[in-house]
């Protein structure tokens, strides 16, 4: 019995001891230290680039269409050919219109001849070359065929006729030089024999002589009326002669009528055959008017047919490259049917859509990068839409490739890289280091071994980094790793980043 009581007492004591031990509070709890990765803000260039897809299109293009119906007789180009503005690309059968044009051109030629002949009969022309020394009639006066209208002379060259004994003259002298001696001064000159009279004539009673004409270039001192002797191939003349102007002639009307036009002035130099005056009368003027009207009608007929014939040709509207031709010889086509297309050589264009935020950061002439099959070329923005597409809410942006080559073809798909933000010196940190709560952006920095929350203001960002515009100075140690246990005041331990450890 006593043994059982002692066992019970001992058991009760053990239970009390256990309860007492379990009820005591521990005072040596260990606080959690969070391992983190960190980064330091950096200053440097920052840009935001976006990629878009667009098709290359020609800046200038035009569909090729005939003006009339008919059968194609010739096609001169194919896809890829380079053409100049106005080049004929294909022709529709124009045989009938060509025959009409040929007939009209013959009629015009006859009308032109009739008009010119009539006009020529009313014109007064210079009989010789020379200077206009006088104009003897005023406009509006009535003239007869024998009326002198003007007087011409040319003393740049002087002529002199000198007799030689007939027995001494040789007809082969023409074109030979002659030596002349001025009677009054003894000065010697050289001239060229231009003519020898055919029949000998008697001079000084019973002396037979031939007159030899000699032309001398006037150096300015020769005047009409001065006398000289001459020697040709050692043969001396038998008498003296008098100098005269080489060209010295009146200009006669030649027909009756009214002096209507004068085309020269005193002092003008005219050449033989040059028109000087126009004389009209009622009969001749009527005939000229009829000839002029006929010529005008003939010209208009030819012009109309030539213009109509031009409609049978499909021409290049500008210089460029033929994109395609769908027509072939002997094919019948209708007016306004598309038979091909031409692309200008002034560049390639691209069009793509951007958000309103991106649109507001763009500017005209801003550069873009165009990439086709790994080949990159430069371009520039030429147009920024002011209104959004009603279906997508996006804004269209157009650009031109400024550095294209023959390998970049219209219709090719291209990748467009657009820089919407670019600064040379901004503070930036990894995007993953930033926490967002509502409108607030903040980071945790390591300060004396604890995580400290710092509110920041942010700017542009890309897939990796974000610009910090306020809140950091650049020398902070920013926690860049994420943890659900990260909060203000928690002790942290900086650990090496996994990619660095490896």
How would you describe this protein?
The protein is of the alpha+beta class. It has three domains: 31-59 and 347-502, Elongation Factor Tu (Ef-tu), domain 3; 61-93 and 312-343, OB fold (Dihydrolipoamide Acetyltransferase, E2P) (Beta Barrel); 148-252, Elongation Factor Tu (Ef-tu), domain 3. The protein is built from five helices and 37 strands. The strands form seven sheets. Strands 3, 4, 27, 28, 29, 30, 31, 32, 33, 34 and 35 form an eleven-stranded antiparallel sheet that branches. A six-stranded antiparallel beta barrel has the order 12-16-14-13-17-19. Strand 17 (227-232) and strand 18 (235-236) form a beta hairpin. Helix 2 runs antiparallel to helix 3. The relative contact order is 0.20. Residues 1-28 have low confidence and may be disordered.
Task: Provide the fold topology.
Layout: H1 2-22, E1 34-36, E2 38-39, E3 42-55, E4 57-58, E5 61-64, E6 70-75, E7 82-83, E8 88-92, H2 95-122, E9 123-125, E10 130-135, E11 142-143, E12 148-165, E13 177-182, E14 188-196, E15 201-203, E16 207-217, E17 227-232, E18 235-236, E19 241-252, E20 257-262, E21 269-270, E22 275-280, H3 282-310, E23 313-315, E24 320-325, E25 332-333, E26 340-344, E27 348-354, H4 356-359, E28 367-372, E29 375-384, E30 395-401, E31 413-430, E32 435-437, E33 440-447, E34 450-461, E35 465-470, E36 478-479, E37 492-494, H5 498-501
Parallel strand pairs: 1-37
Antiparallel strand pairs: 2-36, 3-31, 4-27, 5-26, 6-8, 6-25, 7-24, 8-23, 9-22, 10-12, 10-21, 11-20, 12-16, 12-19, 13-14, 13-17, 14-16, 15-16, 17-18, 17-19, 20-22, 24-26, 27-30, 28-29, 28-31, 29-30, 31-35, 32-33, 33-34, 34-35
């Amino acid at each position: 019995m006593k043994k059982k009581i002692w066992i019970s007492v001992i058991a009760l004591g053990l239970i009390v001891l256990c309860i007492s031990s379990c009820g005591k509070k521990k005072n040596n709890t260990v606080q959690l230290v969070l391992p983190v990765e960190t980064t330091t803000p950096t200053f440097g260039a920052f840009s935001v680039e976006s990629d878009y897809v667009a098709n290359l299109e020609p800046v200038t293009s035009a569909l090729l269409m005939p003006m009339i119906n008919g059968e194609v007789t010739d096609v001169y180009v194919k896809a890829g050919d380079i053409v100049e503005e106005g080049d004929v690309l294909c022709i529709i059968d124009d045989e009938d219109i060509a025959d009409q044009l040929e007939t009209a051109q013959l009629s015009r030629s006859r009308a032109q001849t009739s008009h010119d002949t009539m006009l020529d009969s009313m014109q007064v022309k210079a009989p010789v070359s020379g200077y206009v020394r006088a104009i003897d009639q005023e406009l509006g006066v009535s003239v007869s065929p024998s009326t002198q209208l003007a007087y011409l002379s040319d003393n740049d060259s002087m002529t002199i006729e000198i007799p030689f004994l007939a027995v001494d003259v040789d007809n082969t002298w023409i074109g030979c030089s002659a030596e002349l001696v001025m009677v009054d001064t003894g000065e010697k000159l050289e001239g060229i024999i231009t003519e020898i009279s055919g029949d000998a004539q008697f001079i000084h009673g019973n002396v037979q002589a031939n007159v030899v004409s000699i032309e001398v270039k006037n150096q300015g001192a020769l005047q009409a009326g001065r006398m000289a002797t001459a020697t040709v191939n050692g043969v001396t003349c038998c008498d003296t002669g008098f100098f005269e102007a080489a060209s010295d002639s009146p200009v006669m009307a030649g027909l009756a009528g009214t002096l209507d036009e004068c085309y020269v002035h005193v002092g003008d130099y005219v050449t033989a055959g040059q028109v000087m005056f126009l004389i009209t009368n009622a009969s001749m003027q009527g005939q000229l008017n009829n000839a002029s009207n006929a010529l005008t009608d003939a010209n208009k007929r030819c012009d109309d047919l030539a213009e109509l014939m031009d409609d049978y040709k499909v021409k290049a509207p500008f210089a460029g490259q033929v994109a395609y031709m769908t027509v072939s010889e002997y094919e019948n086509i209708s007016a306004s049917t598309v038979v091909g297309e031409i692309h200008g050589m002034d560049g390639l264009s691209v069009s793509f859509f951007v958000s309103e935020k991106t649109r507001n950061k763009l500017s005209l002439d801003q550069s873009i990068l165009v990439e086709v099959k790994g080949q990159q070329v430069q371009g520039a923005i030429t147009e920024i839409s002011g209104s959004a597409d009603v279906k997508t809410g996006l804004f269209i942006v157009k650009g031109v490739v400024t550095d294209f080559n023959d390998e970049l073809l219209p219709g090719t798909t291209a990748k467009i890289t657009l820089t919407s933000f670019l600064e040379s010196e901004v503070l930036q940190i990894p995007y993953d280091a930033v926490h967002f709560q509502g409108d607030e952006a903040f980071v945790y920095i390591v300060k004396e071994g604890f995580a400290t929350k710092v509110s920041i203001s942010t700017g542009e960002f890309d897939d990796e980094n974000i610009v910090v515009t306020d809140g950091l100075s650049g020398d902070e140690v920013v926690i860049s790793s994420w943890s659900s246990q990260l909060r203000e005041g928690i002790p942290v331990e900086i650990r090496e980043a996994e990619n660095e450890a490896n």
